[in-house]
# Entry
Amino acid sequence: MKMNTMRQSALQVSISLKKVELSVGESKFFICTAIGEPVRLEWFNPQGERIVASKRMMLHTESSRSKLVIYNAIIEDAGIYRCQATEAGGHTAEASVVLEIYQRLTFRDVESPQEFRHGETAEVVCDVISSPVPVVVWYRQDREITEQYHSRFQVLPNNNLQIHQVTKADEGVYRCEASVEAPRRHRPLSRWVFVLSRSVITFLWSLPKEFDICQLTDTGS
# Structure
């Protein structure tokens, strides 16, 4: 019994890396090494499912060594990956690696102009994506918009700017600015900041007054 315990304790597993940070679209490989007499080496994804070879995941396994390659990483690939070794007697040992996926800050195209009727609640769109979630700040005429700035203005959870009872007095230049903490491997760049093209809210006076429309147009500046 003592000898059997010593054999079981001899099975050890290690992975070349403990934590990895990737941007969306990048690829990376991991090496899992087992010390002992394993009869099987398997990889498991963050959902606990055994990984099988696919278009984006390649496996190459030898007797005591297994290589996992992840191609064109996507946000859903993030999580903890485990490599498990199994001996003939059923004893197992494992090691894990944490994979973090970052998506660069990106402003997506927004239809322009955006039109709002006089007196209605306007929602000015700021369509920005990133991982981690970005921090968004709105400016009007280079002044940050806060609830203290004006009670009719509110930044929504989806990053859009809501203006209650929009009027001609709301004309002006609006700017959406987003930032996100950089991954540790880009530590010298403490913040990434991208600025949307400036936009101006104006009225279309060609319509009857009771149908005045507040229009958001892109100035391209």
Remarks:
- Confidence is low (pLDDT under 50) at residues 1-8, 185-221.
- Helices lie at 2-9.
- The first strand starts at residue 12 and ends at 15.
- The radius of gyration is 27 Å.
